[in-house]
Amino acid sequence: QGGGPDKRRVPAVLDVAHRGASAYAPENTLAAVEAAQRLDATTVELDVQRSADGELVIIHDTSLERTTDAEEVFPDRESYAVADFTLAELRRLDAGAWFGAEFAGEPVPTLDEALARLHRHRLNLLLEIKSPELYPGIEADVASALRDRPAWFAPRPSWRWPRLVIQSFDRESMRRSHDLLPRVPHGLLGTVPEEEIGDYARWADQINPDHEAISADYVDAVHDAGMQVHTYTVNDPGDMRTAIAHGVDGIITDRPDVARQVIAEE
Ligand code: G3P
Ligand code: CA
């Protein structure tokens, strides 16, 4: 089960299923984790936010309208901000039907449920703290949730990639999270100016930019500072090949099956 050696091939470039295998199942649901598993992904990216009563939940947008039926279930609410709904309210929502009728009834998962499912399938996790400015103290909440599941801190035998990475566009949030969880690698989303890379390399482990923003020189500069580059969101095989030619360490994609094929060609 989750703690054993990983018998799958260790990829030269890491494939990361963005919001789960979100081309094939509703993003940030357990169905998207299952799809990633079926497609033989090694790693899943998920977004974490916090409910009104302090529970950590997996969802991308900071409001509920796009990926749930919140407006139908709660027609009288003035705001559909994730932060304004309790976990009990969020659990009444359907986070799957918008993607396809076969996913109707798929709930908004909690972080804990997602961690358990990923662990069961021996999938690794790239966890994005989404919009941490809306959730003061969320880094400590995430750290506490992870400390309850120590397997996430143990390296996988024969697996050269980290089992768990935490990332955010908010660099101060990542600094706080790193201070709380110094053994967990941390990634900075977006493009860090080259002259600042050395400063961040003192504590960060990855710089994870949009694939359209990178060049081989930029990737080299990050590598020279001792960090990795995992680039998003790369869905076209030609763009994947370009990113790999630039020297990236990981491809974050809605289509992990395509990434696995392209990576295997290299
Ligand atoms: O992992 C990279 C990617 O998830 C960042 O963008 O908007 O999809 O969270 P977004
Ligand atoms: Ca994300």
Description of the molecule:
The chain is of the alpha/beta class and 266 residues long. It has one domain (14-265): TIM Barrel (Alpha-Beta Barrel), CATH 3.20.20. It contains 10 helices and 9 strands. It has helices at residues 30-38, 70-73, 87-90, 111-120, 138-147, 171-180, 194-200, 216-224, 237-246, 256-265, and strands spanning 14-18, 43-50, 56-58, 124-129, 164-168, 186-189, 206-208, 228-231, 250-253. Strands 1-2-4-5-6-7-8-9 form an 8-stranded parallel beta barrel, surrounded by 5 helices. Strand 2 (43-50) and strand 3 (56-58) form a beta hairpin. The model has no long low-confidence stretch (mean pLDDT 95). SN-glycerol-3-phosphate binds at residues 18, 45, 47, 60, 128, 189, 208, 232-233, 252. GO terms for molecular function: phosphoric diester hydrolase activity. Keywords: Signal. This is Glycerophosphodiester phosphodiesterase. It comes from Streptomonospora alba.
Low-confidence stretches: none
Give average pLDDT, whole number: 95
In which range does the helix fraction lie?
Answer: 25-40%
- What is the domain total for the residues? 1
Shape: globular
GO molecular function: phosphoric diester hydrolase activity
Organism: Streptomonospora alba
Protein name: Glycerophosphodiester phosphodiesterase
Keywords: Signal
